[in-house]
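REQUEST ID: PR-0412
SUBMITTED BY: lab tech R.K.
PRIORITY: routine
TASK: structure prediction, single protein chain
INPUT:
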Amino acid sequence: MDIICFVKTFAKMRYIMHSYNMRKGWEKLLTPDIVALLTQIHEFKGEQNLFIEANRDTLTQLLEIARIQSTEASNKIEGDLHL
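STATUS: complete
OUTPUT:
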């Protein structure tokens, strides 16, 4: 491909990119079913945040236990556990 052909092709691509109307694409994507699912996800995130705030100490303890167990399992796999 010579440089002139490349420049013409690039110019056409640039025109296509600039002439794309994003609003029309979103109108097709945001159907009532999709909006309902997005609303549910938003509600679940709110419920999850409330659960985390209410049970922060318990979740912190579970996270620490999981880290210890993960480290122990990793060490066993690597053969580095010296009892």
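NOTES: Residues 32-54 form the longest helix (23 residues).
REVIEWED BY: pending
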